[in-house]
Design a protein that fits this description.
153 residues, alpha+beta, Nuclear Transport Factor 2, Chain: A, 4-stranded antiparallel β-sheet, 4 helices, 4 strands
Length: 153
Amino acid sequence: MSNLMKPPEYSASPVSGSTQPHRKSRRWVWITLGVFALLCVLGGALVWTFGVNPAIAGEQYYIAIRNQDYAKAYSYLGSDLRARLSQEAFTQQAQQQDAALGRVTQYTYGTFPIGDPATATETVTRAHGSTYTVHLELRQEVGVWKITSFDRI
């Protein structure tokens, strides 16, 4: 009985015109997302450099003025302004404002500082009820934002 024939072996062979779905490349999606992420990071860096930092400098200045820490407030002034206005003269002006109008109780940005130089308006409220607008100019000096001019303390 050795004359028995073995059944033929079948193997799967690719058929032309296969019905397997062709997988589309999504490379363009990843490239688009990468470019978008890069633009977001660069935009954030620009906002931080030219928008947030001058606002922080103005905020720190007015925190020091509110706390009557005039030496610290003076440290936020730019070098040219400090050359024209001594710390003693600055402190005297600030103390005169406090005596006449009361301590600073509140300050808010009227216009948000952007650019270099950055200009800002702040609305300042004093303890005796007076409210007035201050115009600040801020510039970067050796990578640090400083107040380079103001019209009132």
